[in-house]
Amino acid sequence: MPFSDYQGHRLFYQLSGEQGPPLLFIHGMWDNHGIFAHSAAHFAPRHRVLAPDLLGHGQSDKPRMELSMEGFAEQVASLCRHVGLKRVVAMGHSLGGAVVATLAARHPELVRGAVCLDTTLLAPARIVKQALPAMLARLEGEPPAQALAGWLDPMVLPTDGPELKQRLLTAVAQAPMHVTKGLVRAVMNWDGQDTLERLSCPLLYVGGAQPRTDRQALLRLKPAALYGQVVGSGHFIPLVVPEQVNAMLDRFLELLPSLEAAG
After folding, report:
1. Residue 263 has pLDDT above 90, yes or no
2. Given a cut of 80, is residue 1 above it in pLDDT?
């Protein structure tokens, strides 16, 4: 199994496709690279596809270290250098979208285009200053699924099926507590507006049934951004409606040269 070293820790990744413009897929919290299995299979015949497990997730190490969007972005930048990928189009789901935006803002020479899938890019102040700290405090005395119920419950629609809800709850229950707390802190400490203001590459946002970033709010900040929404899925759109996600990424890749030229 392939691993890359990052500050003495093992970072697992999957690299597929023999040639073509490189794509980078970054999963969300408590998840792993497997959420992009459908997309990787779709794009590998025409692209190099890199899909890592961030530290704290999947088959990567789970060290006791501070977690942050900036740290995750540097992990991914290091991995891209390790495997020799340049000028990637990066797609991230949920927290992975925040990592993608951070990566693009910190390493504009590396990221050609950014795609955020149902990511909270512009969190309301009440979420950052009240709801998330309250959840973090509850984690001191309650099981994670109970402490984070207000965050987790809206992620899965009844039409998404009970298997998906169980998948989420199992992933949360199995995650080390220091990772879960670190992820909540990482979301609390991330400044999405500042990150977006520094992001210069073309941006595509794709929301679920109840998008986590408001269209008008995003377009006020990034007028040239493309904004889409899938049909028939809650938060986990790469799993529930991968064909819709792939079609939007295909179109984004087709439009990318003209988006870059427009500046």
Report:
1. no
2. no
Apex 213 CA angle, 207 and 214, nearest 5: 100
Q: What is the pLDDT of residues 15-72, one digit of tens each?
A: 999 889 999 999 999 999 999 999 999 999 999 999 999 999 999 999 999 999 999 9
* CA 162 remoteness from chain centre: 23
Question: Facing residues of 25 across strands?
Answer: 91
Q: Which residues contact 37 (CB under 8 A, 6 or more apart)?
A: none
Angle, to 10 degrees, between the axis of helix 95-106 and the axis of helix 177-189?
Answer: 60
- Give the span between the Cα atoms of 257 and 141, in whole angstroms: 52
Burial of residue 76 (CB within 10 Å: 0-12, 13-18, 19+) is buried
Residues 222-240: tens digit of each pLDDT: 999 999 999 999 999 999 9
Cβ atoms of 204 and 113 within 8 Å: the answer is yes
Nearest Cα residue to 57 out of 93, 105, 16: 93
CA–CA separation, 183 and 177 (whole Å): 10
Please compute the mean of the pLDDT values over residues 120-124 and round it to a whole number: 96
How long is the chain? 263
Rounded to the nearest 10°, the torsion over CA 89, 95, 98, 104 is -30
Structural domains present in the chain: 3-122+191-262 (3.40.50.1820)
Structure tokens belonging to residue 15: 């690299």
Question: End-to-end distance of the chain based on CA atoms, in angstroms?
Answer: 40
Residues 6+ apart with CB under 8 A from 117: 91, 92, 93, 94, 96, 97, 206, 237, 238, 245
Note if the pTM is more than 0.90. yes
Q: Which residue, 123, 99, 102, is CA-closest to 51?
A: 99
